[in-house]
Specification:
The complex is a heterotrimer.
Chain A: E1 10-19, E2 22-32, E3 37-41, H1 48-55, E4 65-73, E5 76-77, H2 85-91, E6 92-95, H3 106-115, H4 122-135, H5 139-142, H6 155-168, E7 173-177, H7 185-198, E8 203-207, H8 211-217, E9 220-225, E10 228-234, H9 235-240, H10 245-251
Parallel strand pairs in A: 3-8, 3-9, 6-7, 7-8
Antiparallel strand pairs in A: 1-2, 1-4, 4-5, 9-10
Helix pairs in contact in A: 3-4, 3-6, 4-6, 6-7
Chain B: H1 2-41, H2 47-51, H3 64-95, H4 100-112, H5 117-131, H6 138-162, H7 166-174, H8 179-206, H9 211-216, H10 236-244, H11 249-283
Helix pairs in contact in B: 1-11, 3-6, 3-8, 3-10, 4-6, 5-6, 6-8, 7-8, 8-11, 10-11
Chain C: H1 20-52, H2 55-86, H3 90-122, H4 129-135, H5 137-157, H6 160-190, H7 195-227, H8 236-240
Helix pairs in contact in C: 1-2, 1-3, 1-5, 2-3, 3-7, 5-6, 5-7, 6-7
The chains are: A alpha/beta, B mainly alpha, C mainly alpha.
């Protein structure tokens, strides 16, 4: 039997996650295509953030974490013993809910990812800083102040610095855990615009509580509930005619 | 309704004045103490005082040897306690598993910080002086004090590390850093202010300790400068103690002058600690 | 929300477990139902006015048309508000879209009733009963009335089966419309002095036929709302199939 070469960027099959006895992700299978934006939605505690963190193995640090099933990225099992988690994380970047720049200069924030790989050539670093800040649509605002502390920027700017920092290591997948929930509407709009522009070069998965945001930025939507993947469809379908009643009840605000 | 508000306001005012009174009381006591010490001993402070060896005559006696001893002790103790304490703190906070054993260790270390210092003296007497055969040397003294301030440094290090938000660590890991890289490049720099502050305060505590050093046999009266870690030694607090127990008034004045010197060293160290802490807090506003 | 004097329906809402949006949608549906009842009553009145040649009744219809128009405007505005403020999705979105279009169709139906009433006012004398019978205009009226009421029922009860039945039943109306031409032509040859009256009647019949079309449109919207199936511009066979 010849198995067709899968072009999926990410393929999860029958994934279950346990924290000690708690069964928090139940038999989730999903396949995500390259250069798409996928939104994970669902009520609090439904497992969407947990599942997101499976992808860059951030759950490894939690006591009692156990997983079954497989997660393949570009066809390779990311939980294989031979995989070095530090290498994996250079391919998969993550942006967090609360902007978390390091208490250092903007320049040092961006180059940190490169420094830990041993790259210290100044011209390489300089070029990376400019490229990343441009891609994060914040170059013009900070280019004259690269040595200023990143903490002196506004919340929306800090978040874009975090995005630039993530992009600097050239990942192919970018994970975003409610990246705009702590920001004001204008900053939120800038981040959404950014996601739209980044789509052509990266595969993006974004967890969001904001239904309208999911509608604005994503191509496909995955609805999680109590650890299960209830529905995974094109965004338009979910918003005009969802297949499952549970999905409809959630997005119309009938519960949760 | 407004009667309730009146009562509350009265209580508020009462506490305000009570608080001011308490604060003034403490400041007053400190002020009286400083004034009496300075007025009595300040005149004795001169170059001769600093550079003279001990003598039976109070006007000729000086603090050179104990001052030297205090400096040496400070240096040696730092060299021993700081690496040990900071490394332990980092290990316990960043690397250690957070289980019941870890909680037990944490409680015990905190307790150790409160153990009376003379107990450390007894411990040191047995282990350093007798078993290891170090005698009543500078080295033994420094080891003793290092042991004394180790828990303080460990706790201060842990607190400083705890103050660094978890999100910084997450961001570092998410970029592909190892635990050590995260600790070295992000956590330590961010917590250095807190660690340094804790270390300085620990050192300034150490140089004020008298009891454990007396127990291990630090000399009340030595006539030569210590030149190696194995030599006999004395420190300022012991010299002060010595002079205070003599009947001659001249020695009381000497003791007072020595107290001023010791206080000055302590104030300077604490001042540096506060300055560093303020600078650190300005830089790292979470 | 102002409840029109006639006809009235109960607007009692059970708001215990509804979200704010659900409350708004419920009110909106109530408004639409009111307008619907008014449109039906307008149609019935014109039938009555035609049979009895009651010009006063016809004038009532004409003046009531203002109310139909103002109800249409209100419903339009309410739909706009719901879109802007609540961002409805899925079934809620389809409901508001359907209501918006049904609103439009009902207003046209109101216009048609007004148009028919005006002809009755303009006519110099009562219409010949024989002519009314031979053109089957009253039968047409009855059918139209029925399907307008049934499509309201389908809306209220979300009965897509009933909605689907409208398409076939409209055929009768179309058939009467087509055959009326020949009948009236014959009558004109026989009574050339009554040509004006006949022209009015032809127009009335055309208008009634359009009411049938509006009911079909409304049925399509109801089916889209409930099933998310788009039946616009599909063949009749597909529309009837389930």
């Amino acid at each position: 039997m010849v198995k067709e070469m899968s072009k999926d960027k990410l393929l999860a099959e029958k994934v279950n996650v346990f924290y000690d006895e708690a069964h928090v992700i139940k038999d989730v299978s999903i396949s995500i295509q390259p250069n798409t934006v996928t939104a994970f939605i669902g009520p609090s505690g439904c497992g969407k953030s947990t599942f997101l963190r499976l992808i860059n193995r951030m759950n490894d640090y939690i006591d009692g974490f156990r997983k079954t099933g497989s997660i393949l990225i570009d066809g390779e099992d990311i939980y294989d013993r031979k995989v070095r988690v530090e290498d994996l994380r250079k391919q998969i970047g993550m942006v967090f809910q609360k902007p978390n720049p390091f208490p250092k200069s903007i320049y040092e924030n961006i180059v940190y990812g490169l420094r830990i790989q041993g790259i210290s050539n100044k011209s390489v670093l300089d070029e990376t800083v400019e490229r990343s800040l441009r891609r994060a649509a914040i170059w013009d605002e900070v280019k004259d102040n690269l040595n200023k502390s990143a903490l002196s920027l506004s919340g929306g700017q800090q978040q874009r610095i975090c995005i630039a920092r993530t992009l600097a290591v050239e990942p192919s997948i970018v994970l975003m855990d409610e990246p705009a929930s702590a920001l004001d509407p204008i900053s939120t709009s800038k981040i959404e615009q950014l996601i739209h522009e980044l789509k052509s070069q990266y595969t993006i998965i974004i967890v969001t509580h904001n239904m309208q945001q999911a509608g604005r930025v994503s191509d496909k939507v995955a609805f999680f509930y109590l650890g299960e993947l209830i529905e995974f469809s094109e965004t338009k379908e979910i918003f005009i005619n969802p297949k499952k009643e549970l999905t409809q009840n959630y997005i119309t605000g009938r519960f949760g | 309704m407004s009667k309730r508000v009146d009562t509350n306001r009265i209580i508020d005012g009462l506490f305000r004045y009570f608080g001011i009174a308490c604060t003034l009381f403490g400041l007053l006591m400190l002020g009286i103490f400083l004034y009496s010490v300075i007025s009595e001993g300040f005149s004795r402070l001169d170059w001769q005082f600093f550079t003279s060896l001990p003598s039976r005559k109070p006007e000729q006696a000086g603090i050179l040897i104990p001052l030297f001893g205090t400096m040496w002790v400070m240096i040696l103790t730092s060299m021993i306690a700081i690496p040990l304490g900071v490394a332990s703190g980092i290990y316990l906070e960043e690397y250690g598993k957070k289980n019941r054993l870890a909680s037990l260790i944490e409680i015990n270390i905190t307790n150790l910080a409160g153990v009376p210092s003379i107990i450390y003296g007894l411990l040191a007497l047995e282990i350093f002086v007798r078993i290891l055969g170090l005698g009543k040397s500078l080295l033994a003294g420094s080891l003793t004090l290092a042991l004394l301030i180790l828990p303080i440094i460990i706790v201060a290090t842990r607190e400083a590390l705890k103050a660094v938000p978890k999100t910084i660590r997450e961001a570092s890991y998410a970029l592909g850093a190892t635990k050590w890289q995260t600790t070295w490049y992000q956590i330590l720099p961010a917590s250095s202010g807190g660690i340094v502050t804790g270390v300085i305060l620990a050192i300034s505590r150490a140089i004020g300790e008298t009891a454990p050093l007396i127990v291990i046999g630090a000399m009340l009266y030595i006539t030569t400068l210590p030149t190696s870690p194995m030599d006999d030694f004395s420190v300022l607090p012991i010299q002060i103690f010595n002079w205070l127990s003599r009947p001659q008034k001249g020695f009381i004045i000497n003791a007072t002058a020595a107290i001023i010197v010791l206080l000055s060293i302590t104030f300077i160290l604490n001042g540096i600690a506060i300055y560093l802490r303020n600078r650190w807090q300005k830089k790292v506003k979470w | 929300m102002d409840v029109p004097k006639e006809p009235e329906i109960s607007n009692a809402l059970n708001t215990d477990n509804m979200t704010h949006l659900e409350e708004e949608l419920s009110l909106l549906k109530g408004e639409l139902t009111n307008m619907w009842q008014l449109a039906i009553s307008q149609l019935v009145k014109t039938r009555e006015a035609l049979v009895q040649f009651d010009r006063d009744l016809a004038r009532q219809v004409v003046s009531a048309e203002k109310r139909v128009n103002s109800m249409e405007l209100k419903i339009d505005r309410d739909c706009e508000n719901i879109f802007a403020l609540y961002n409805p999705v899925a079934v809620d979105l389809r409901t508001v879209l359907a209501i918006l279009k049904i609103n439009n169709n009902l207003e046209r139906t109101g216009d048609i009733s007004e148009g028919v009433a005006k002809y009755i006012i303009y006519a110099k004398e009562p219409f010949d009963k024989e002519l009314l019978d031979s053109t089957r205009i009253l039968e047409m009226y009855d059918q139209t009335n029925e399907i307008l009421e049934d499509v309201l029922k389908a809306f209220e009860t979300e009965d897509t089966r009933l909605a689907r039945s409208i398409f076939k039943r409209d055929e009768v109306i179309d058939e009467i419309n087509v055959s009326a031409n020949a009948v009236i032509a014959d009558y004109i040859r026989a009574h050339p002095d009554k040509i004006e009256e006949c022209l009015y009647l032809v127009s009335m019949i055309r208008k009634l036929e359009r009411v049938g079309d509006h009911c079909k449109n409304i049925a399509e919207e109801i089916i889209f709302n409930i099933e998310a199936k788009v039946l616009k511009h599909k063949s009749k066979k597909k529309k009837e199939a389930e």
